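Observation: inputs received (chain + L-homoserine).
Thought: call the complex predictor directly.
Action: predict_structure
Action Input:
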Amino acid sequence: MKISVKVPATTANLGAGFDSLGMALPIYNTITIEETVLPGTGIEINVIKNDVLDDLSLEHIPMDENSLIYKAVELLYNSIGQNPSELKITVQSQIPVARGLGSSASVIVGGLMAANELLGRPADEVALLSIAAEVEGHPDNITPAFVGGLVMSSLEDDGRVIYRKLEWPQEWDITVCVPDYELSTDISRSVLPQEVELADAVFNAKRMGMFVQAVNTKDAELMKYALQDRLHQPYRMKLVPGLDKIIENLKHEENVLGCVLSGAGPAIVIISQKNNLDKIKSIVKDTWESLNVKVNIMTLPVEKQGAQIINE
Ligand code: HSE
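Observation:
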């Protein structure tokens, strides 16, 4: 038996929603799991590069028992008292790796859904989300990869992920800018402080409230405040040279609602109202090119569909 699951890319945080807000995007990885017939062949993981960028490196995708996909599949098998064996896992990778677009979440979610199907669906959505968030460590990429759309989610102390979907205003464009270098999430999280000032925590708490209200009421003025952050972006600026200049240069564009780091970076996401995309793109391109950074820029809609089983 062979099961394939198509999983969207995601952008997480969206400013103040660190480890909570995330949105699915129409770039996909397809994860296929196949039971192999020969006993003792163990688990084989292959990655086929099919990316939207020309220069994608796959060296950061571990293909052995250390891989996130293996851990996720193993946890699912263990949850029903079994161990995985004799599986061939193939990842057809379109999502850029180590750029902040949820490539690890996509393989975790895809691997889990495919393995769950192979096993006769022992786990429900709650159980799968819980395993996926445990493996990834935070739910903000996992949840929209799983259910699609714009989602706020929380990994609770009991291991459950609670989430609610929000409706993204059609009027607001999402422009994803992917630089030509990688930044691992581990490195990007290592620069974050263990404790923050109360004033910074309050700053972000206010902005999470603003984000929900701004999206629900299509309030562009409020969204300009909502997309600000003091919990992660200031610390990560040094890992993404040029981001401060891009934010500064975009400040003068009245249709720009905000410029945020996509997940742990280094990709960035610009939220704007219609009609000034060429200007926005040239500001990003010129700023990064002046620092010898090439950039791939895509304006994308929200992907409303989450991970789905497909017949290949
Ligand atoms: N919320 C996560 C972070 C997303 O910013 O580190 C990356 O996986």
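Thought: report the result.
Final Answer: The chain has a mean pLDDT of 91. Residues 12-13, 18-19, 138, 140-141, 185, 188-189, 232, 263-264 surround L-homoserine (CB under 6 Å).
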